Amino acid sequence: MNRSIRFTSIFALLLTLVLLVNLSIIHVFRQDEYAANPLNQRGFLELKSTPRGQISTGGMVLATSAADGEGLYQRSYPSENPTAFGPVTGYLSDQFGASGLESSYNGVLNGTDPGLFSARWLDTLTGKDSPGANLELTLDPRMQEVAHRQLSANGYEGAVVALRPSSGEVLALASSPGFDPNPLSDSATAAGAWESVTTDPGNPLINHATQETLPPGSIFKIITTAAGLDNGYSADSQLTGAAEITLPGTTTTLTNYAGQTCAGGGQVSLETAFSLSCNTAFVEMGIDVGADALRSAAESFGVGEQYDLGLPVSPGSLGELPDDAALGQTSIGQRDVTMSALQAAVMAATVANDGLRMEPYLVDRITGTDLRELRGNEPREITQAVSPEVAGEIEDLMLASERNTSGGRSGIASKTGTAEHGGEGTPPHTWYVAYLPDSDVAVAVVVKDGGGFGSSATGGQVASPVGRAVLDAAGGQ
């Protein structure tokens, strides 16, 4: 009898010890894992019982929370055109999680971010619930809405990015197709809305401005020009104006647009080649300056670099440069070169800022419920991509390019691009990058697959009117 009691006692003691060890592991080492588990409704309800911070820009509230009849806070996106801002704010859904700034700044918005402790130490020590902090963005509401309308009203798929060159502030970040986050955040409509956005062939949940990289075509000639000017070329340097050029070591030829000669053929100046976007001239110059110079210029302008905007950002790429044939194709923004609209805007903004590349940023500051600033962003210099003198020369070339672009206006420095992809007969992607030398605004536009204009579509025809409309909307920027 005593032996049975002893055995049972030891067994019970071992079970108790195992339980204590397991509880210790859970509380000490796995607490965050279980607390953050989406199946943990207790944590979910606790967060929904505290007001989540607002997202706003330029005095416009883009995301806010209001209590329902049960005292739980529900998210809504009250701007007049939430689809224009949806790819930026993202959504917050009970069923499908979060995206965009709602996801990346979740801790700030719900008040749990450790970085808020210094501003809210008293609440933390007393155990008082702290409402979420607010995000104030750099976006200009008018520019954002004009950019989105220019894309959506024309049925374009693509993106527009506008920056303030001197600081890197993002003034517009439009993605088309976009999405309205309201039905995704409403439990009554979320399932149907999710089905709609996830089956849309235009991929509205992808931020096309930051996340999608495409061949840039002739806007890349800005970088090729920078490499040339840094290696002995000038606006007066002579290059071929022939209708076609044979790539070294191959029988493959590259032609100018529509197989035309550049200003009648023969030798032409770099200024003429840039303003008329002559492919053959840039193939010649790119091969002459060499792979190292071209790669260095591309990296200086941010190709292949990611930025922390709180949104998914793809780096783009120059691609491999194994030989001069590849180098020639790359020099006109084809072959394996890819850029996002964000990177294209950074490229234009760098020229506008006397060759100094600034880091783009989207969140201006974080504020408390009393609107007192808790944390702010400051402009940050990345690198001097080119000297102010070279930047000035590129600006002169871009001013000449605008004069030779359909609908061109004096006072705008620009470059268009028409990028082949997908094989013969596939409509090209069309690009436009531009800035106003007398204003602190630069813009990049990409319209995918010719915007409905077919295989003859060009950047000047399709993308440039969008960019000019956004520059017009900048007004007193």
From TrEMBL:
SUPFAM superfamilies: beta-lactamase/transpeptidase-like (SSF56601)
Pfam family for this entry, one: Transpeptidase
GO cellular component: a single term: plasma membrane
Ranges where the record places region Disordered: 403-425
Entry's Gene Ontology BP terms: cell wall organization
Domain Penicillin-binding protein transpeptidase positions: 158-471
Membrane-spanning intervals of the chain: none
Domain Penicillin binding protein A dimerisation: 52-134
Record InterPro entries: Beta-lactam/transpept, Beta-lactam/transpept-like, PBPA_dimer, PCN-bd_Tpept
Single GO MF annotation: peptidoglycan L,D-transpeptidase activity
Compositional bias annotation for Polar residues: 403-417
Protein name: Penicillin-binding protein 2
